[in-house]
Amino acid sequence: MAFQKPDYTDYRNHLSFEIRSDVSKYPENSSEDMNATDSIADSLLKNDPFYIKVFSSKANFWIIRHSDNRVYGPFKKQEYEVLRTELKVPIELELENKILE
Fold it and tell me: Relative to the CA of 51, which of 9, 31, 41, 72 has its CA 20 to 30 Å away?
């Protein structure tokens, strides 16, 4: 289980870096390349349904199932609690309250 407060700048920087790692398109990693990939990342964050959902809440909940490497989320708390019950996540696995404050 994981709790997240999504940070737009962190997401944009990470996506921009990942896009720029395609050296066939961005061989020089120049300031122009950085501006171009920042723009692409901004577009993805604002238009892709996954990222729209990530940023639709101030807080997201995720369930990470290691047995089959599946990640479920992002969820609002109520959605998370429903899936947690459906997936039979052991009650002993609790998020720390200090994280949720």
Answer: 31
